Amino acid sequence: MKKIIILLVAVLTFSSANSQKLDPQSFVGFGLSVIEGQSAFSMDFAIDGYYMGFASNYAVGDGTELNYSSDSTYATDLSKVSIINFGYFIPLSEEIMIAPILGYGWSNQIYQDPVGFNTYFYGTGTSMINLGVKATYIVNETVGFMVGLGTFENFQACLLVRI
Fold first, then answer.
1. Number of domains making up the chain
2. What predicted TM-score, i.e. pTM, was given to this entire model?
3. What is the DSSP letter of 97?
4. Which of 42, 5, 6, 50 is nearest to 26 (CA)?
5. Which of 38, 87, 113, 135 has the fewest CB neighbours in a 10 Å radius?
6. Mind listing the pLDDT tens digit for each residue in 92-120?
7. Region for residue 116 given its phi and psi (left: phi exceeds 0; alpha: psi -120 to 50; beta: otherwise)
8. What is the residue range of 20's domain?
9. What is each CA distance from 15 to 22, 83, 98, 101, in whole angstroms?
């Protein structure tokens, strides 16, 4: 815990010393995430350093969605997972920015029910807070990439286009 606090203080000190020279960037990005072990698509935005990102795997079961279960219902290996994140990018250099992230995620187990015809339903959802960090590297005037780690959104890789 002490190492995390020291690292955070060092980043904030370094960024405040450079913040008078560097402007936060604006971008839009598309990428892939891993949320609780499930692959997901992500879409990210930053306007003058203020960050917002969404990710979801849009998972469904086989057949028609129902709102109930039967004696033949069984759990699958799939879950529907989604997350929304917010943060602020702190420029460390002309090319590199870092952002602490706070987000809200939710997950629903998918259950199959093959009686009569294929049906599925979503189990009771669980909600989680996502704490993480995202880092960007701007390659040139128009393109960059971003990676991120978090407690609920385990990993993210994203291609960025500056706006």
1. 1
2. 0.79
3. E
4. 50
5. 135
6. 998 999 999 999 999 999 989 887 788 88
7. left
8. 2-162
9. 9, 28, 9, 16
